[in-house]
UniProtKB/TrEMBL annotation:
Source species, domain of life: Eukaryota
Any one GO CC term of the record: plasma membrane
Membrane topology: Single-pass type II membrane protein
Residue span(s) of domain C-type lectin: 161-269
InterPro entries: C-type_lectin-like (IPR001304), C-type_lectin-like/link_sf (IPR016186), C-type_lectin/matrix_domain (IPR050828), CTDL_fold (IPR016187)
PROSITE patterns: C_TYPE_LECTIN_2
SUPFAM superfamilies xref list: C-type lectin-like
Lineage: Eukaryota, Metazoa, Chordata, Craniata, Vertebrata
Cell location: Cell membrane
The name this protein goes by in its record: Si:dkey-26c10.5
TM helices/strands, residue ranges: 75-99
Keyword Kinase: no
Keywords, in A-Z order: Membrane, Transmembrane, Transmembrane helix
């Protein structure tokens, strides 16, 4: 009985152990079944298309960016070239204007304006007529009395001769009034210091004119207080303390004397 009981008890324990093991395994399997499982699905066609589209967009963006960069570079180069050309043109204009300013405006001096005097050599070709040329030309020929200098023109109503302008009045005043009138014009009564000036005034005038000649004591002097170097007194010079140029007579003897309060025409001279 005891042996049978033990055998049955042992078998029961074995069966119980098997059941426990099986139940434990089943619990563990159920626990494993209850855990979240990772499922890896195969890629769909939609995701593949999206990927390809993204890659295409990236390629297009990179291509357009490269094209835009190249276009900007071309515009930059074109702008640089344009600015360089403009700078060169402006530089050329500045150089041309500088040369013109340095040389002056050149025009050919008419031959009629160049005086022909003894010892003067007429140039074979027309020379450029500008201020510097005239200044150098006439300063080196101080003895030349030119009718037209060309470098400076006298005002309307004045005559140009040598380095002076002359005004022959058309109305009569006394000697003192005539001198004041000439002073108001910026000059004085005419001072005749050469035969050329004497001949010029005698030729241009056809009346009797006060000149800047006056007697002080026993000496005749000009209005600038210089003494007479050459005189052209007429044989019958009359009397008076002021000098008149009578252009109706020959130029070598046409100075006459007259009272200073007498009224006659006058000649003003403006030197430059």
């Amino acid at each position: 009985m005891y042996i049978k009981f033990c055998r049955s008890y042992g078998e029961d324990k074995k069966d119980e152990a098997k059941e426990n093991l099986s139940s434990k395994l089943s619990v563990e399997l159920e626990g494993e079944k209850g855990r979240p499982q990772l499922h890896f699905s195969k890629p769909s066609w939609w995701s593949v298309l999206l990927s390809l589209k993204c890659l295409a967009n990236i390629w297009l963006m990179s291509s357009s960016s490269a094209k835009q960069t190249e276009a900007n570079a071309r515009l930059y180069r074109a702008g640089c070239i344009l600015l360089t050309i403009m700078c060169l043109v402006l530089l050329l204009v500045v150089i041309v204007l500088s040369l013109k300013l340095q040389n002056g405006s050149h025009t050919d001096c008419p031959e009629s304006e160049i005086p022909i005097t003894p010892g003067h050599i007429t140039p074979k070709s027309a020379s450029p007529c500008n201020y510097e040329h005239c200044k150098d030309f006439f300063s080196s020929r101080s003895s030349i009395e030119a009718k037209h200098l060309g470098c400076r023109q006298c005002a309307d109503g004045w005559l140009t001769f040598g380095r002076s302008c002359f005004f022959l009045s058309t109305y009569r005043l006394g000697w003192e009034q005539s001198q004041r009138n000439c002073t108001a014009r910026g000059g004085s009564l005419a001072i005749i210091t050469s035969r050329e000036v004497q001949n010029f005034l005698s030729k241009e005038g056809n009346l009797k004119y006060w000149i800047g000649l006056r007697q002080k004591g026993n000496m005749w002097t000009w209005v600038n207080n210089t003494a007479i170097r050459e005189s052209y007194w007429a044989g019958n010079a009359a009397s008076g303390d002021c000098g008149i140029l009578n252009s109706e007579n020959q130029s070598d003897k046409n100075w006459i004397k007259a009272p200073c309060d007498a009224h006659t025409y006058f000649v003003c001279q403006l030197q430059f």
